[in-house]
Amino acid sequence: MLKRKNIQSSQLWFKKFALISTLFIGSYAQANNEQATALKLYTFDCGTIKVSDMDVFSTSGDYKDQQATFTDSCYLIRHEKGDLMWDTGLPSSLINKEPMVNGVFTLSLEKSLVEQLAEIDVSPTDIEYLSLSHSHFDHVGQASTFKDATWLTSQAELEHIASADDLKALHTDLSKLKRKTFSQDYDVFGDGSVMILNVPGHTVGHTALQVNLANTGTVLLSGDLYHQAKSRHLKRVPRFNVDEPQTRESFKKFENIASAKDAKVIIQHEAKHVSKLPNIPQYLD
């Protein structure tokens, strides 16, 4: 009799545990779904870059004498724990000026990030986090606008910015910001919804961004891992990348994530990709 009671008691305890577990898992899933639903990705026009000779964008030599027009895009990711600004485009000093010629590049910008953020009732002081895919001029031009943000940066890129003569002005601006450094992939909000991916090779600390949206699914923002859709397809590496073998390893990592997540890949300089994204005040979710 005692043994039967113990068995019955154990069965009752197990049923209660199973019920509690089911309720907990259901609540957790609902909370995660609500959080994912709240996640939004806005796209901003951060300039236009015309390239007179694409030869510098392929070590294979097959882009020589070709021309291209790149878009320069920036992104705001809104999460219940804060806002992340990803890349800041060309400098606002280009607005209302004749296009600037810089080597093979001709640069122009029509509207600042401040003006575009105002269209969705956001001020630069509202932005909690700033992350730059890397330190090239067309990704950091308006970084100093976000003086109250915490700068999320790879340690390798931080050290490069601090040591490079041509980045002294950028270092002076960004050195005033609070910052969080990392050496591997970085979970921005601690829930896996927004991941900064460590994909070096273009620069020593180059990164890309993974955003897991409720309705759209996973979105991958390329930084400058690729500059064109055809460069991704052909696996072309720019001549000015700091490390070609490392770049190719980053290609593999990025593509493995893209495949595993069935991700929507956005090449940030590819006009065909960016033009299909919602214009502000609309967004991906």
Structural class: alpha/beta
Helix content: 25-40%
The tally of domains stands at: 2
Number of strands: 13
What Rg, in angstroms, do the CA atoms define? 23 Å
CATH level-4 homologous superfamily of the largest domain = Ribonuclease Z/Hydroxyacylglutathione hydrolase-like
The largest beta-sheet arranges its strands as 4-5-1-2-3-6-7-8
CATH topology of the largest domain: Metallo-beta-lactamase, Chain A
User: What share of the residues does DSSP label as strand, in percent?
Assistant: 15-25%
**What is the CATH level 1 assignment of the largest domain?**
Alpha Beta
Question: Count of DSSP helices?
Answer: 8
Shape: globular
Helix and strand sequence = HEEEEEHEHEHHEEEEEHHEH
As residue ranges, the low-confidence spans are 1-37
How far from one another are the termini?
A: 59 Å
Question: What does the average pLDDT come to?
Answer: 90
Q: Mind telling me which CATH architecture of the largest domain this is?
A: 4-Layer Sandwich
Tell me about the biggest sheet?
A: 8 strands, mixed
